[in-house]
Design a protein that fits this description.
36% helix; alpha+beta; Leucine-rich Repeat Variant; 15% strand
Length: 264
């Protein structure tokens, strides 16, 4: 996996773990009676700091949670492309990244035209625009459907060494991963990552959510959970895994068979 892919995967993990809802991107300003029209400033908590967004201009400031140092501006004001400014036009989201360490990553969005930027909550950070992806014409590509041919996203598992070296309590770190596995509405790829990631945590904490994941509606999640339970190597998980021997999905049955082969 190249550096760009790793950065993208990290951003995806952070974004999904934050549990962000779909962004409401609109091409028109809200009515004068709307709540957004009355609320120019938005405040967001991120790790040990507070962020302030001018929702009409897109300017972001940060300050320590105790107020030390006062408000410091992050990056620059976005170019509004001659769109009119209105309260609520810009939105700000903090993406959790404590598992990987470092300052939280921020996502700033422009609800007027759908543009978005990524930045870090630290002094001197620059906002990097998220470019629009290419949408090739299926007819021009010989009639093939690029969506149907797209390969699934595989998010990288963070090593035990990196997790142990990162800031925060172990209980907080595993809680974030368990939330990603159990939270409804998150993409299947995130749940697969979470089931795989649990294999690097202590068995006593990782096994309960992994055993629950064996009942997932997504076969990919079940397979990832089986592999993680196999890595943890606790005999009491074997009966729960063997109970899936007749699972309708062949990938699940194959994963179960791999465990059976390794049972002494």
């Amino acid at each position: 996996m190249n550096t760009t892919s790793k950065c993208l995967a990290g951003a995806l993990v952070g974004l999904m773990l934050a549990g962000l809802a779909c962004l409401d991107v609109s091409n028109s300003a809200p009515s004068a009676d709307g709540d957004d029209e009355k609320r120019r400033f938005q405040f967001v908590r991120a790790s040990k700091m507070i962020l302030r967004l001018d929702s009409a201009l897109g300017v972001v400031w940060k300050v320590a949670e105790n107020g030390d140092g006062g408000w410091a501006m992050l990056g620059a004001t976005p170019d509004d492309d001659d769109e009119p400014n209105w309260n609520g036009r810009y939105g700000l989201f903090a993406l959790k990244s404590r598992v990987l360490g470092g300052p939280p990553q921020l996502l700033r969005v422009d609800r007027a035209n759908g543009r978005s930027w990524l930045g870090l909550a630290k002094a001197g950070s620059r906002w990097t625009p998220i470019e629009e992806g290419q949408s090739p014409d299926p007819a021009a590509a010989g009639g093939e459907d690029p969506v149907a041919d797209a390969k699934p996203v595989h998010l990288p598992v963070v090593s035990k060494e990196i997790i142990e070296a990162s800031v925060g309590e172990e209980s907080e770190k595993i809680a974030v991963v368990v939330q990603a596995l159990e939270k409804e509405g998150l993409p299947m790829e995130i749940k697969v990552w979470a089931a795989s990631q649990l294999a690097v945590f202590p068995a006593e904490s990782a096994m309960p959510p992994l055993l629950d994941a064996l009942q997932s509606e997504h076969p990919e999640v079940v397979v990832a959970a089986i592999h993680s339970l196999k890595t943890l190597g606790r005999p009491k998980a074997i009966p729960k895994i063997l109970a899936l021997s007749s699972h309708p999905d062949p990938a699940v049955r194959e994963a179960v068979q791999a465990v059976v082969v390794n049972v002494p």
